[in-house]
Amino acid sequence: MSKSPAADSDHFAGLVPHQQLLTCIHCGLCTSACPTYLETGNENDGPRGRIHLMRGVEEKRIELTETVRGHLDLCLDCRACETACPSGVEYGQLIETFRVSDREQQIQAGKDPDGWFEKFFLHDIFPDRRRLDRLLWPAWLMQQLRLDRVIDALGLTRILPQPLQRMHRMLPRLKKGLRSIPPFLPHQGERRQARVGLFLGCVSDAMFRRVHWATARVLQKAGCDVYTPDQQQCCGAIEFHAGQREAARKRAETNASVFQEERVDVVVVNVAGCGAMLKEYTHFDEAEGDGSFGKFAGQVRDINEFLASIDLPAPTGPLPLKVVYQDACHLRHAQQVVQPPRTLLQAIPQLELREIAEATICCGAAGSYNLQQPDMADRLGDRKLKNILAQEPDVIATANAGCALQLNALLKTAGVNIPVVHPIELLDASYQQTPVAAVMKSLR
């Protein structure tokens, strides 16, 4: 993102275009939508306060201390403030630009902004779905031998660094044996819809490949040809949110290229965080001015959004289940997709959809946030789980891998056995006429 000319003068720190900081009118409507402000009551932990901090640093009235960084880093980037804002402040863009510039200035000053966990796991392991898949094999074997339960019972994880403790706690029940989605899957019946590209992501493919298969089957049922290029990469969100803009841009370049080679009409994604990042590849165009990412970003659709927009066959298999739908922030706020997943779930015979209190408030997952900000993540997670359990659901549905990991960990800690699934899995089960007992068994 280009900086304003004034940002290069001696009057400004050059971290974020100054004019963008002035779009906030300080009305405070965002504060009641901000999860961290609701928890702490501290103005510095809300969007308006963070904009004040960024403006103070940019105008060289406030020193960028670790305390200031702490308030900014506590932001989940859930974008709920953008939904609430009457002035259209692009808060997510503001704080991401600030983080990128801060990181660059730290590196120029000879400082290393990353610790061992960020370097090895967040930047080397997590964004590489094949590397992550290999790393999860020992974890799968441990689960098969029930050694994970022994480790939990003996409290052995206490000797691990906190991020690794959190990773162990969040690890879902892994299901190996599912082959990778092939490069091409043909439509079923009459070809009635589009050539669809399926985005795999990184963590989602390694831990939730079953969701990709459910997505592919539903797309085939809808009359779509499904193309899944093997060369695609992580969406780049992990690096982008950590201030590694150039690394994210390179991934964007690869993804745009491989899907364009397949000549697809639309690129479907079933992970809300990935979808938000893919749709915002246009930010790279704004920085470079060549428009090369705009076409790709314009083709991206969340799976719920896409299915709700086409002539979809009615699901006929009954699923007499009470289902709570948990809004993923990067679907509801960043992509403004609210009704489509609810519409799809309500189309399933005998399924009862239940709404929860504070549906717009983040569950505390926020990508790698629950690994890096564990205290706030747990506070928000407990708040979310209380609202969910009040509806006494049989199943929890959410359209984001990070939310699923967070909710699974919370349920495990609470000793509650409720499956957490993607809405597409329930739609797929209905299409396949799977008995509800078999569905519940497969989801546990």
> From the alpha-carbon coordinates, what is the Rg to the nearest angstrom?
22 Å
Look at the structure and give the mean pLDDT: 88
| Total separate domains | 4
Q: What's the arrangement of strands in the largest beta sheet?
A: 1-3-2-4-5
Distance between the termini: 44 Å
Low-confidence stretches: 1-8
Let me know the number of strands. 9
Question: What is the CATH architecture annotation of the largest domain?
Answer: 3-Layer(aba) Sandwich
Helicity level = 40-55%
> Tell me, what is the CATH class of the largest domain?
Alpha Beta
Report the total helices.
25
CATH level-3 fold name of the largest domain: Rossmann fold
**Secondary-structure content class:** alpha/beta
Largest sheet: 5 strands, mixed
Estimate the strand proportion.
5-15%
Describe the global form.
globular
